[in-house]
User: Which sequence fits this backbone?
């Protein structure tokens, strides 16, 4: 079917529609994240990986493991990945670094810079795959990149031994998660496009959409112990956000003149300041949060089967505190989660699902 962008904008349909798919089926809302017992307190937990048999997570410029502090870097750490012998650490402003089991820096001289990394994953052959969210904005400025509607992210891989860097895809809309299938195919969570897309084992080709029209911005992907995948939805979509994204004049004025804390844009957390834009929407009546209250932030991690179909999910809804789930790691039947917005590392049983 032929589509005409100008007509779509006039009719408010197609890519110009401001509707958002509902949370239904395997994405049906619940309070499973909010009902979890207290986790590990952290300042800004971001990513989590399995290193030397135990979970290790990034918190600002630190990496915390089972025995405590493992590493401190010069700048915040937006992404981690580990193989049997290497820990890959993406740093904001200081590029990609590699460490051996003794936590000694064994970073090769990369043949080209690897900056603005949003996700990392080791392939079975030892190749380190990475995504960069944007050519202009670091990971911490993801909200600005969304409001600028950029498509300057990349997918690539490095040889940890030689430092050779290969870029496989460009012009991606903030790729924020990456997974390697047993076939070698590479799956990427393209956040601003709200879909999961699969490329071949070299990261080439046009790509095949595996899951489309996600009602949030998808982030990191990790294997489920029982088969299938977990993926994090780090921020919600809403008709209001979709409307703002279609108003270039308003967006530019907002970015230029308004404190980022008060942008009409998704966030890792919300509700802490009465000046937030959503408060003007009368979220509460007689002190009670409305069931249909819109929210700037949300907590959501989704279980996918082997075909990338959602089968279950864990939520922290509007008014909750465990928002901004940015990292997940399934370790021996226990799912570890980093709640960036809630400043907490959570654990929950990952067993019992039929995939």
Assistant:
């Amino acid at each position: 079917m032929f589509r005409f962008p100008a007509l779509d904008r006039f009719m408010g349909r197609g890519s110009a529609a401001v509707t958002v798919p509902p949370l239904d089926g395997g994405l049906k809302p619940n309070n499973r994240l909010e009902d979890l017992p207290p986790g590990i307190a952290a300042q800004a937990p971001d990513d989590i990986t399995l290193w030397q048999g135990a979970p290790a997570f990034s918190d600002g410029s630190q990496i915390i493991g089972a025995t405590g502090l493992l590493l401190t870097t010069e700048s915040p750490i937006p992404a981690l990945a580990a193989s049997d012998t290497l820990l890959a650490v993406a740093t904001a402003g200081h590029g990609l670094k590699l460490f051996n089991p003794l936590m000694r820096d064994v970073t090769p001289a990369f043949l080209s810079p690897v900056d603005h990394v949003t996700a990392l994953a080791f392939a079975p052959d030892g190749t380190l795959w990475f995504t960069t969210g944007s050519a202009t904005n670091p990971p911490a400025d993801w909200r600005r990149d969304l409001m600028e509607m950029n498509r300057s992210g990349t997918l690539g891989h490095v040889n940890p031994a030689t430092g050779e860097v290969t870029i496989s895809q460009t012009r991606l809309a903030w790729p924020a998660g990456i997974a390697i299938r047993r076939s070698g195919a590479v799956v990427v969570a393209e956040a601003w496009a709200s879909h999961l897309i699969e490329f071949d084992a070299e990261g080439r080709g046009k790509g095949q959409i595996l899951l489309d029209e996600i009602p949030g911005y998808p982030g990191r992907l990790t294997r489920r112990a029982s088969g299938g995948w977990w993926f994090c939805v780090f921020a919600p979509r809403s008709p209001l956000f979709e409307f703002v994204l279609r108003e270039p004049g308003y967006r530019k004025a907002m970015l230029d003149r308004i404190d980022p804390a008060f942008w009409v844009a998704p966030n890792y957390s919300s509700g802490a300041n009465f000046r937030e834009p959503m408060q003007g929407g009368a979220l509460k009546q007689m002190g009670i949060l409305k069931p249909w209250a819109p929210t700037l932030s949300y907590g959501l991690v989704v279980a996918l089967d082997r075909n990338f179909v959602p089968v279950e999910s864990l939520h922290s809804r509007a008014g909750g505190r465990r928002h901004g789930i940015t990292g997940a790691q399934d370790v021996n039947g226990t799912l570890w989660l980093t709640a960036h917005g809630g400043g907490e590392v959570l654990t929950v049983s990952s067993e019992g699902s039929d995939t």
User: Anything to note?
Assistant: The first helix runs from residue 5 to 11. The helical segments are 5-11, 142-147, 239-245, 248-257. The mean pLDDT is 92. The first strand starts at residue 40 and ends at 41.
